[in-house]
Write a structure and sequence with these properties.
Low-confidence stretches: none
Number of helices: 8
Strand order of the largest sheet: 2-3-4-9
Shape: rod-shaped
Distance between the termini: 64 Å
CATH topology of the largest domain: Rieske Iron-sulfur Protein
Number of domains: 2
Radius of gyration: 35 Å
Mean pLDDT: 88
CATH architecture of the largest domain: 3-layer Sandwich
Largest sheet: 4 strands, antiparallel
CATH superfamily of the largest domain: Rieske [2Fe-2S] iron-sulphur domain
Number of strands: 11
Strand content: 15-25%
Order of helices and strands: HHHHHHHHEEEEEEEEEEE
Bound molecules: FE2/S2 (inorganic) cluster
Amino acid sequence: MSKALDFLLQARPEAMQAYFSFLKKSGSHLDAKTAALISVITKVHAKTANGLRQYLPRALKAGASADEVIDALLMAMPALGFSKIVWAIDIILDMNLSEFGHYLKENLPDRNASTAPVPQWRSIFDVAALADGETRFVKNGCEAYYVLRDGERAQVYSARCPHRDNIIPESGCAHDTLTCPFHEWKFDLKTGRCIAGGTKPVTAVAAKVEAGKIWVQ
Ligand code: FES
């Protein structure tokens, strides 16, 4: 019980006892669980943290499950408003009650887990078709690449120009230099760096050599 109620009981014992008696009798036709859930709602409505901490365990003891507590809070949303429900849930989580444990552990999504799809590898070329040190323009669906073979490894760049995203055609490649015909940006294919016209490098693509193929992501 709060200090204030203790004080009022001392200062106005008859009035307060009548008040408690009223509370007790007013729920006499409700089962214990329903009455306790309503008490939880009233504590949330009054934003009394101590009251919520006191009455929530009573509701659980009376047989209410964590889901029923959450449902009761959500059903009372028209009276409570969303911010009070969030306030109550914060307190409930801080209470570390075992009944809510499955929400805290298995059932809550891992917010640190990435939801981004894992890029898939796809083969774009037979490695044997490329001599060591050779560079080749390779089309694959809507994409195109410049592939350089370096022994058992392959270096792959997107053929899309970093200036305006145009595909730099095969005719733009001479030795290890790539020249975009649109605005004459030039790139060193050994490093990907832009060596004339602009500042941005060509985009390096994740690549691997496996089972005789060159694969990209
Ligand atoms: S689009 Fe390639 S240089 Fe402009």
